[in-house]
Each structure stands twice: as C-alpha cells, then as structure tokens.
Amino acid sequence: MRGSFGLHVRAPAGTRIEQTEVYFQQVEDYIRQVIPANEIGVIIDNIGVPKSHHLALSDSVTVGTGDGEILVALNQPHRPTAEYLKMLREQLPHRFPDFEFFTQPADIVSQILNFRPARPDRHTSHGPAAGIRDELPASPSRSLRSSEAFRGAVDVHVQQILDAPRITIDNDRILAQQSGLTQRDVASSVLLSLAGSGATSTNFWLNYNRTA
Fold first, then answer.
1. For residue 155, is it within any domain?
2. Is residue 78 domain-shared with residue 17, that is, in the same domain?
C-alpha cells in the first residue's frame, strides 16, 4: 500500500514494557515533527511479545519487551514515502543513540515478496555477523568508506540479542527429589513467576446457555 511504512524500534535489552512505551511515544512525537500533521493518517505502536496464540498475528522480529514496531499510514496527497524514510534514517540514530532502528515492509504485498519473516538464526555465529554489520552502513554514524563500498545497503542490523538480563538458577536435584519436586515442577514454577500461566495452563470459558 502506498503511503505507509513500518519502523522497528529496539530499546536497550531488558527495558521494561512500561518504559518502552515512554520511549516509543518520544519516537512517535519526533516522527510527527518530521512529517506534517495533515499528511499523517494514523500511527500505531505494537510493543512487546504477544501471548502464545497471538504470535501468528504479530511481528516476528520482536523478541522482547524492549522491541516493537511503529506503523505509519499517510494521507493523500503526501510527499514521497521514501523521502521521509531517508530523513528518519539519518536523524533518528542521532536523536536516540541508544536505540536501534530499521524499517520493514508495511503492506501485505511487500511482506509476501520479502519471502520469509526476519528472525534470528540459531545456526548463525553472532561474532562474524556483528563484524559484517560493522563494515556496512547500518546508520549515518558508520564510516563513510563503508557507505561508499556498499551503496544501497540500509538498516543493517543483527537480529540476535545476547546482552539481555538473565537469571541463573542452581538447582539441587537430590534435595528437590527428597522434597517431592521434579525438575518439571521447578521449571514450571520459574516460568509462572517470569511469564505467567498463559503458556502452561490456558483456560477457556464456555457459555453453555448460548445457542448456536
């Protein structure tokens, strides 16, 4: 669809969802400064990872609470969408140096022609991938030499995140077994504490009084 674009915004790893919302509002406010108000139709923010049965309806690039996508639809008439994207690519990294920005197809046709959803590949080594990223013009802050050597390369980034906060649990299997706990019990308890019960015991309420 003409006059639309999707801007993926990635805050520092481990950012809480409520703080991510504040950051997204700041980015959205800046987008409204770049694009005239009469040309903006609607701006929608999708933040964080959805619950299990909503994954098919979400952006597969989002990997945590600090991730999200800003969808922008423009009114007709408007200046070229590519021109606005060029301005945002140049200005956003300087305005928000701690964030990572890259664009994705916003319409269903371009998404299909993109062949496959973006996702981290578990077979890819992060070190070499990061080295290639640093040699390519991922943002205006990259070297001019690289920009000249790889013309047309934009939004270069590594999908994997390795610096997210993590919890390491030292579990005494013998003591747990003596207490009547299995490793599944321990793992389920941790999952419930960190992610809730939606992934372990999904509940459905049926209205038996409702007729078809």
1. no
2. yes
Q: Provide mean pLDDT across the span 94-105.
A: 86
122 falls within a domain: no
| Cα torsion angle, 156, 159, 160, 163, sign | positive
* Structural element, H or E, at residue 10: strand 4-10
**Domain around 54:** 4-116
Task: Name the DSSP letter for residue 31.
Answer: H
Listed residue (53, 48, 42, 84) closest to 67, CA to CA: 48
Instruction: Name 67's bridge partners.
Output: 10
Angle, CA of 34, 37 and 18, to the nearest 5°: 70
Whether residue 83 is found in the same domain as residue 10: yes
Residue 7: Cβ-neighbour burial (10 angstroms; 0-12, 13-18, 19+): buried
State pLDDT tens for residues 6-20: 888 999 888 888 999
Q: Of the residues 116, 143, 176, which one is the last residue of a structural domain? A: 116
Q: What is the pLDDT of residues 110-141, one digit of tens each?
A: 666 665 555 555 555 667 766 776 677 544 44
Structural domain total, the chain: 2
Question: Which residue blocks in the chain are alpha helix, DSSP H?
Answer: 17-34, 81-95, 108-113, 126-135, 144-149, 173-178, 183-195
**73 SS3 class:** strand
Q: d(Cα 95, Cα 30) in Å, to the nearest integer? A: 9
